[in-house]
Design goal:
The complex is a heterodimer of chains A (about 375) and B (about 475). Chain A is of the alpha+beta class. Chain A has 3 domains: about 160 residues, 2-Layer Sandwich (Uridine Diphospho-n-acetylenolpyruvylglucosamine Reductase, domain 3), CATH 3.30.465.10; about 80 residues, 2-Layer Sandwich (Alpha-Beta Plaits); about 100 residues, 2-Layer Sandwich (Alpha-Beta Plaits), CATH 3.30.70. Chain A is about 30% helix and about 25% strand. In chain A, the strands form 4 sheets. Chain A has an 8-stranded antiparallel β-sheet, with helices on both faces. Chain A has a 5-stranded antiparallel β-sheet with strand order 3-4-8-6-7. The longest helix of chain A has 14 residues. With about 475 residues, chain B is an alpha+beta fold. Among the domains of chain B are: about 120 residues, Uridine Diphospho-n-acetylenolpyruvylglucosamine Reductase, domain 3; about 110 residues, Alpha-Beta Plaits (2-Layer Sandwich), CATH 3.30.70.2190; about 80 residues, 2-Layer Sandwich (Alpha-Beta Plaits). Helix content of chain B is about 35%, strand content about 20%. Chain B is built from 17 helices and 19 strands. In chain B, a hairpin with a 4-residue loop joins β18 and β19. Classes of the chains: A alpha+beta (about 375), B alpha+beta (about 475). At the A-B interface, β7, α6, β9 and α12 of A face β9, α7, β11, α8 and α10 of B.
Amino acid sequence: MTAPSTVDEAAALITGATTPLAPRGAGSRWGATDGTPVDTSGLNQILEHNPGDFTAVLQAGVSLVEAQARFATAGQWLAVDPPTGRHEGGGTIGGLVATADSGPCRQRYGGLRDLVIGITVVLSDGTVASSGGKVIKNVAGYDLGKLFTGSYGSLGLIASVAVRLHPLPRATVTVNGSTVDIAVLQKAALELNRRPLEALSLDARWNGEGGGLLVRFGGASAATQAAALGLVLQQLGLTDVRVENDDEALWQAQRDGQRSRDAVVLKVSGQPGDLSRVIGAARDVGASVVSRAGLGLSWIRCSPDAVAGLRAALKPLAGTVTDGARLVDQVWPSVEPGVAALNRRVKERFDPAGRFPALPLSTVEA
Amino acid sequence: MDEVLGELRRIVGSQWVLTDAGELRTYASDGLLQYEVTPRVAVLPGSADEVRAVVALCARHGLPWVARGAGSGLSGGALPIVDGLLIVMSRLTRVLKVDLDNGRVLVEPGVTNASVSAAVGPHFFYPPDPSSQIVCTIGGNVAENSGGAHCFKYGFTTNYVLGLEVVLPDGSAVTLGGPEPDAAGLDLVGAFVGSEGTLGVATAVWLRVVPRPEAVRTLVAFFDSTREAGEAVSRIVAAGVVPGAIEMMDKPSIRAVEEMAHAGYPVGRGAALLVELDGPETECAALFDEVAALCAECGSDDVRIAADEAQRELFWKTRKSAFPAMGRLSPNYFVQDGVIPRTRLPEVLERIDELSAEYGLMVANVFHAGDGNLHPLVCYDGRVEGQAARAEELSGRILDVCLEAGGSITGEHGVGVDKRKHMPKMFAEADLEAFQRLRCAFDPAGLANPGKVMPTPRLCGEVPGPYRQHPLEAAGLAERF
């Protein structure tokens, strides 16, 4: 394994390669890609933190934990809270951007695609190119940051990213309500989506024969908002409604539900109104579910042999196997031929030698 | 030529193919009037199928084309090309689907920005709010990744587009993304939004809409200097407050807007800061006094709080009248659109003042203060020979100042034709070459809005090098190149 410590070294390594390459961050994902690893751990500099401007520039190998610790000294954070992987330290910035991983606070702050304001990449011919910049508002040039966010390394190596930061929430309070009725859960989630809550997070959970909703508030009046919403959840038929000031463990459990060490996690892209269908399908195969109820994204933790049936039951929603890739035949969702062709044309332009990993999609009907 | 025109008439109907010079003059410019090109043909398709047929026809004949929405853009992004087609999207105005359970709408590209909010109101709204929102279209917003006064808190067009029906320059139609987030494959929606019409044309757009905030509180604070007002912005943001909008005007701008809007603003003061908090009632109440106190601490002895919706509307009308109001102070002006890291504001404004003195031309500043987006208005008199050119030069030097401060040449207006020449100052050749890779993946023949964004015309790899008769020439639409 080779670990370049500068962008130029990375470019030299990539152009000199004769075998397929696999950019690698902390290795916090279980389903690693085949190929010669390009280890980004040497690209570990926090190049800039501009507290007054709420921006930072980070090399790919910087760990999220280290970056957050630095930002916290100014009362700021990169507003992402993805599940941690096999390492306590969680993933690297580069790995996070490449996989577009996200956690519960995506409800309020958007995903990584919405927080990356500039990117520098190394392409397979050694080209080092940047797009965007260091300011939060900028429409000059094409947005390669979005193209590479969630590209799973298929277009090139992410060397560094510029990100927008946010103030850390002053205090957080969570309302947590339970139900054994999927219809009640769905109805309550849609009702909350119609309200101007400005919640940090709005999640659903399901495990076995029961589940619930969790809503997290942050800000000057978090406790007041949470108390008011607690009454609403009761009116909507949820039981055992609690307002929790010490709420971190609740959300850690939600994040943990997005990962699995031994089994498979199927991430489903839906809409908020698909919640009952997703949970129903998961319940039928004895799987547990974590959902971003305001966004429509769900993570189903199941056995490998349940994946095909879940995909079939949830058609046409896209399902991606985010953990346990080696245990299933098809990791990526299938896309229509025209879109697949366009994805391929983009890859051919950015990675003409085809050294980087395959595109994160399938052309096989699941 | 006859052959192409005949086909166009068969596709969209004769009345929607414009070739008369008088009719075409309407489309010669977009919102940036100093550029003017009369297209040879303008077509107004009435459906996505017609758009596809027109683009496919262009692909068969190798004809370049430009798609146009309302034509309110400020960078010449919709400037026609003399030897190509202008595809006017203004007839595609249907709201196809409103799904408030999921907070989604599906609209055709000719729908105006304001009518999206109208379609989902009163309980929901569509946050990106360019000043031209009454007329500008969603298709144009998608092309330019439009912003607005509220994007510091709410984000830009790109944060609200979930899916696109796109006609690619080869005439094929694809669906990128959809009503669900995180579609399979690369984020081609993210790549398409803000690509200024160079990757294809959208025929339908999935947008996210959000519940209208429970409460809105607005104040305007006056300061002796932009430095003090800038300090207030920094203190507010550093306190962890994320205002819905935070807008600054300098002394010349205050004078101009007061003459037009008669809001009782103190002419002669150095800066006005409009701060709007929105969100849950309890949160606004908790933070609003803090914001007013911070303004006072930073030197404002005149903080005016909107007592009702009428006064709030007056505050906003005054702010939004800044561009037209400048016409009362100066016969002509250029609107600039630079971005800086917000903390560099004092030094950048000082440098702009120096340049203004050096050129002997007034520069008024209107500023989206939260996100560092400056709109210097460079005033000049077009009747004085050479003054327009000097004003343009000054306008360009202001961008140099923004870049030196670590900023950008455009925050929301786009590159278009107007800022092509500044692109190499912001991006290295390798960066531009990487942009071209994306362009070539979507449009290898270079037919969609050629000559925009990139500083110099570039061809894609597959296009053979030696001279070929240009397809327009073959089609009889142009005689020489």
